[in-house]
Design goal:
With about 325 residues, the chain is α/β, with parallel strands linked by helices. The protein has three domains: about 120 residues, Nucleotidyltransferase, domain 5 (2-Layer Sandwich); about 70 residues; about 100 residues, no CATH class. Helix content is about 55%, strand content about 15%. The longest helix has about 35 residues.
Length: about 325
């Protein structure tokens, strides 16, 4: 396990970066710079002047904030510096009770979090260029779907509540916008298909994942991006937890609560898996029979659907791990 001499907590925002440098559990200094190449170089020079240390001996820890991380991640990767990108919820939960919040305080707390949890550090590795492109396309697609839903839902929900003339006028007012948005959505889907065909490894993963009944190209793309081609998350149980489809027991003393799924999950992936499960219980004979049998036994429908989501996750990871497409009547071959 790699040993680090210094721990650098970074609070990332659109305009600025707040750095807090710690040695063991003591904060040495704090510095705020602009979130651009000039500001990052300014801090790295200050870090070297203060510590005289090689960047490979420093562990940089930051919360995931999407594209705002990119300038710093690019610079640190160029210098081969170890980087730990962690979910904000994980860092917040580990801090316990805290009072006050500023960018400077957050940077110091992240630095101390990195020191206290250094044995559990998961070093960040940059995704391939094609995965970064896929990530941008899926994000664009999600925004288009959201905009279409915002325009479409009021038009369908007003039926029977407003006059036909007013409803028709509303539909005509949004018709051009909806047509353009749907055309853009088709273009994004086509771009994702073409991107998958251009890269052999990405094509292989799409073929394996979409072979599972209920998994569409959109769901496959989100899973591939979320797992960084099944490298950062290779265990189906961990991914099921990440997607929020694993129920956890909540008990205390004599009280025995019902197991519930955690709200700390990737809601986008969870939603897509739910749609996949709804499709699977209609088109997959095994899962259809499973769903009908459990519901007939009196099980809650959402509980059974969640179990189906979990089964789908395990099927996906099995196909990727064994490098084969899903087969309904697959039998294990004994060595």
């Amino acid at each position: 396990m790699q040993q680090f001499d210094y721990f650098v907590g970074v609070d990332v925002s659109k305009a600025t970066l707040d750095f807090a440098v710690a040695k063991t559990n003591q904060i040495l200094f704090h510095q705020q710079v602009t979130n651009d190449k000039k500001g990052i170089i300014q801090f790295l020079k200050a870090l070297h002047q203060q510590t005289k240390v090689n960047l490979r001996q420093c562990l940089f820890c930051m919360e995931f904030t999407g594209i705002y991380n990119n300038p710093l991640l690019t610079a640190l990767h160029r210098h081969s510096a170890p980087v730990w990108v962690e979910r904000a919820a994980h860092i917040q939960e580990s801090m316990g009770l805290t009072r006050g919040k500023t960018d400077q305080m957050d940077a110091k707390r992240i630095a101390l979090f990195a020191y206290k949890n250094r044995d559990e550090a998961r070093l960040w590795t940059p995704p391939r260029t094609v995965i970064a492109q896929l990530d941008r396309l899926t994000a664009q697609r999600a925004r288009l779907v959201k905009e279409i839903k915002m325009l479409q839902t009021p038009l369908t929900d007003t039926e029977g509540f407003v006059g036909k003339a007013d409803r028709k006028a509303d539909q005509q007012a949004c018709a051009a916008s909806l047509k353009a948005l749907k055309a853009d959505l088709q273009s994004i889907d086509q771009a994702i298909t073409e991107l998958a065909q251009q890269d052999p490894e990405l094509k292989r993963l799409f073929e394996r994942v979409t072979s599972v009944v209920g998994i569409s190209q959109t769901t496959a793309a989100e899973i591939i991006v979320a797992t960084n081609e099944f490298t950062t998350i290779s265990d189906p149980k961990k991914f099921a937890c990440y997607a929020g489809v694993v129920p956890f027991e909540r008990s205390s003393g004599q009280r025995r609560g019902k197991p519930q799924v955690s709200h700390m999950a990737n809601k986008k992936v969870k939603s897509l898996l739910h749609l996949g499960a709804m499709s699977a219980i209609q088109h997959c004979p095994q899962l259809k029979l499973y769903y009908q049998r459990k519901v007939a036994q009196g099980k809650n429908k959402m509980l059974v659907l969640n179990n189906v989501r979990n089964k789908i996750v395990h099927r996906i990871f099995a196909c990727v791990r064994q490098d084969r497409n899903y087969e309904e009547n697959y039998t294990h071959q004994l060595a």
